[in-house]
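Before our next group meeting I need something from you. Please put the record directly below this note.
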Amino acid sequence: MKKSVLLLLACIAMGLQLIMAQTPLKPRDTTIAGPQNFAVVMGISKYKYVRPLNYADKDAELFRNYLKSPGGGRVSDDNIYMLLNDQANETNFQVKFKSWLKAKKLQRGDRLFMYLAGHGDAIDKDQFFYLTYDCNPAGDKNNYLVNGAIRMYDIKTMIAKEVGKGVEVFLIMDACRSNELPGGAEGLGFSVQPFPSKKWEK
């Protein structure tokens, strides 16, 4: 009897997971006339393999709350893609966030805020990374090219695509470094170079 009940509960759980996995992404709200504001907010204090941080997740929550406030534009929950700690893994950004962004169909005049808080590293003057929850450097800079890290080059490419459509993009990045990361002192010297300080060029 107990085995039957457990099997039934397992089947129900699997069914719920399947339903959730098949839930379509919520598209852009077309009942709102004119430009809209959107945001991706990531904050990682607790890493799987890297030394933890104290306030990155809390800072991300504060920024999310600001966006929802009158002063921040009253951005709706549907227009904010939020990832904290273990949810802020590479797959949830590279696959799920990009699918979310595609479903929103950003248009000319829209604004996209990108807030990334957590660890960052640079291994040379051309390779900069934002480390997601599942990043495992293990003292080898080549591990960033395998998984668990987002190349800032990819972020720049994404931003350029949106800017080309007439979207205003605001990148706010609070990426601390730890001496344990393979970029070392040289990487720290490159930390301000991946992005121009003025307007994006189309």
Notes: The beta strands are 37-43, 80-84, 111-124, 127-131, 149-151, 168-176. The chain has one domain: 30-189. Residues 30-189 form a domain with the Rossmann fold fold (CATH 3.40.50.1460). The radius of gyration is 19 Å.
